[in-house]
C-alpha cells in the first residue's frame, strides 16, 4: 500500500509531495548545474526563463549532446503528448521550451501523439476519442509557434507503418522483467501497454534511420516520462544507435493545495480553451500563501513559497527578474494582498490565452503540413 504522502512519479501517475532532489537520485539523472547553464548560455544568449528559474532541473547526457553540437554534429528534438483530453498550461511548459531550443539550435522536432497509449491505459477512452484529442491537441502544439518543415507530428495509430519495424527491433531486446521493474506492470496489466514502451522509444531513432547515419536526439519533457528513456537508453547501443539525451522539467502545480496541474482535477487546472470567466473563477479559488485576514496579511506578510498564484508568475507569466523579486518582497512584507495578485494573474493568463486561442484557430488551416508523409 502506498501511503498518502509517499512520492509516486510514473508516466501514468504523479502523487505525493515531490522531492526533486530525491528524484534525481532515485532515477539516476544529473542536475543541470551552473557549468552546464553557462555552456547553454554560450549558445542561446540569455537563459530561457524555464532554465533561469530552475523549472528544467535535471538531464541525461546534455553535456554529451553539447559536445557533439560544438563539434559540428547537429541534433534533433523529440517530445510528445498522450492525447487523453484537452491541453492545459502544464503541457505547454515543455512545448514552449522545446520551441526555444529549436530556434536556438536550429533543430528539427519529432512530436509523437500516443493515441494508442491513452487508449490502452484509460478504460473510458475509445480509439475515436484519442484520435479526436490528437487533432485538438495538435492545434495547441502548432499554436506554440512551430513551423511546417521543422516539426513532424507522428500519430501512432495512423503512422504505425512508419514505426513498427523499429518498435519490433526495440521490443526484441527488452524483456518483461525489465519493463515490469521500470513501469510497475502487474499480472492484470493488458498486453498492449506492456508492448507500448517500444513504440514510445521509436522516435528516438527515426532521424538516424531517415538520414542513414546516427543522429543525436534531445528530449525535453517533464520527469514523469523518464522511465521510457531508461528503457530506451538501455537498448540503444545494442541496436547501433546513440542513446537519447534528456532535459527534465518539474511539474507546473495545479491551482489547488499541492500536486501537479492535472486534467483529472479540472477546477484547479487552466485549459487552453477556457473562457476568460472560467479563468477568473479558477484563479479566484486558487490556493495562496496568504493570511486569513487582510489585517494579518498587512502585518505578517504572506508566503510565496507555497503560493500557486506566485508559482504561475514565477514559472510562466512574469518574465522580468526584477519584477518577480519585487513581487516576492512585497508579498513577504504584507505590501500586496492575494486579491490583487489574483486579478493580475487572471489578466496575464487571459491575455496569453487570447493569442493562443487565435493561433489555435489558425492552426486548423496548416495542420496537414505537419503530418508524417
Ligand atoms: P502527457 O500527455 O502526459 O504529457 C505531455 C507533456 O507534458 C508534460 N507534463 C507536464 N509538464 C509540466 N507540468 C505539468 N503539470 C505537466 N503534466 C504533463 C509531460 O511530461 C509531457 O512532456 N507518454 C507521453 C507522450 C509522449 C512523450 C514523448 C512525452 C510520447 N513521446 C516524448 C514527452 C516526450 C504522455 O502521455 O505525455
Concise account of the structure shown:
The chain has helices at residues 20-27, 34-44, 49-52, 62-70, 89-105, 115-121, 127-143, 160-172, 176-183, 191-201, 203-211, 226-236, 276-284, 294-300, 308-317, 321-332, 338-366; strands at residues 8-9, 14-15, 30-31, 56-60, 76-81, 109-113, 151-155, 217-222, 245-249. It has 373 residues and is of the alpha/beta class.
Quick tags:
single chain, 373 residues, alpha/beta, Rossmann fold, Tyrosyl-Transfer RNA Synthetase, 2 domains, seven-stranded mixed sheet, 10% strand, binds tryptophanyl-5'AMP
SSE topology:
Elements: E1 8-9, E2 14-15, H1 20-27, E3 30-31, H2 34-44, H3 49-52, E4 56-60, H4 62-70, E5 76-81, H5 89-105, E6 109-113, H6 115-121, H7 127-143, E7 151-155, H8 160-172, H9 176-183, H10 191-201, H11 203-211, E8 217-222, H12 226-236, E9 245-249, H13 276-284, H14 294-300, H15 308-317, H16 321-332, H17 338-366
Parallel strand pairs: 5-6, 5-8, 6-7, 8-9
Antiparallel strand pairs: 1-2, 3-4, 4-9
Helix pairs in contact: 6-7, 7-17, 8-10, 9-12, 10-12, 13-17, 15-17
Bound molecules: tryptophanyl-5'AMP.
